[in-house]
């Protein structure tokens, strides 16, 4: 067994969950490609695609050059055109040449960094492999909204993510954040995402989802569903000159 094997085995996604992810992916895709529309060829790197539910490689662009970095052997079997990530001490390094990529995706990956130092070092590496004015997109559970659910839903969640913390992290790693918003469930407009997340928290506070949970495994799945439905931050930053 290796790190994230439990996450791989337990991360089943039903039809509704996949539909929600597709809605979120469509929004993210639209945001990114609207910023890169003038590029004839786009070099894209995705960090930690997991089971590849977002599947950026499947975007129908003739000139999209895609590569993924994944550290879990189970997930790697699900991904084509993959490379292994190299880890040195506490900081990750990306085994790629300087200024190679137009865009880097970190979709629900940054929160798995073991410390602020590791997150800092990783974004420095991301800056190194991005081209001039390259973009980085981060999607992560919002610690401000999730609270302890951020940790309860996944034992490998270590780095708390908020828009304010991301803005500071981007600044120190020579990025400029020019877009910050929220998504929650199928809602991709910030106001709707905020309200939807508040309603989910109220429903769980009333214990309604747990009424028919008669064993611990079902309770765990219901708790993970709560985290899945609560709001996430969506931040886009550009490499500074």
Q: How are the secondary structure elements laid out?
A:
Blueprint: H1 5-10, H2 15-35, E1 42-47, E2 64-70, H3 73-76, E3 82-84, E4 86-88, E5 91-93, E6 101-107, H4 116-129, E7 130-141, H5 143-146, H6 149-152, H7 163-172, E8 175-183, H8 190-205, H9 216-229, E9 232-239
Parallel strand pairs: 1-2, 1-6, 2-3, 6-7
Antiparallel strand pairs: 4-5, 7-9, 8-9
By CATH, the topology is: Rossmann fold
> Which geometry do the CA atoms define?
globular
Note poorly predicted spans: 1-10
The N- and C-terminal alpha carbons lie at a distance of: 43 Å
Descriptive key words:
Rossmann fold, 241 residues, alpha/beta, 9 helices, two-stranded antiparallel sheet
Structure in a nutshell:
With 241 residues, this protein is of the alpha/beta class.
Structure explained in plain terms:
The chain has 241 residues and is an alpha/beta fold. It has helices at 5-10, 15-35, 73-76, 116-129, 143-146, 149-152, 163-172, 190-205, 216-229, and strands at 42-47, 64-70, 82-84, 86-88, 91-93, 101-107, 130-141, 175-183, 232-239. β6, α4 and β7 (130-141) form a beta-alpha-beta unit. Mean pLDDT is 82; it is low at 1-10.
């Amino acid at each position: 067994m290796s790190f994230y094997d439990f996450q791989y085995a337990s991360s089943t996604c039903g039809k509704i969950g996949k539909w929600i992810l597709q809605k979120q992916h469509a929004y993210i895709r639209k945001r990114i490609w609207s910023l890169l529309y003038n590029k004839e060829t786009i070099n894209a790197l995705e960090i930690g695609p997991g089971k590849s539910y977002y599947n950026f490689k499947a975007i129908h662009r003739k000139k999209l050059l895609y590569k993924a970095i994944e550290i879990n052997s189970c997930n790697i079997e699900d991904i084509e055109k993959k490379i292994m990530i190299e880890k040195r001490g506490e900081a990750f390094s990306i085994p790629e040449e300087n200024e190679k990529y137009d865009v880097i995706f970190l979709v629900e990956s940054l929160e798995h960094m073991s410390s602020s130092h590791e997150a800092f070092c990783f974004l420095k590496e991301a800056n190194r492999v991005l081209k001039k004015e390259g973009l980085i997109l981060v999607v992560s559970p919002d610690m401000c909204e999730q609270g302890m659910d951020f940790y309860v839903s996944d034992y490998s969640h270590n780095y708390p993510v908020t828009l304010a913390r991301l803005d500071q992290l981007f600044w120190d790693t020579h990025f400029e954040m020019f877009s910050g918003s929220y998504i929650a469930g199928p809602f991709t407009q910030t106001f709707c995402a905020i309200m939807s997340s508040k309603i989910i928290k109220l429903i769980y506070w009333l214990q309604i989802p747990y009424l028919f949970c008669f064993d611990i495994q079902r309770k765990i799945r219901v708790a993970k569903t709560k985290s899945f439905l609560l709001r996430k931050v969506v931040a886009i930053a550009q490499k500074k000159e």
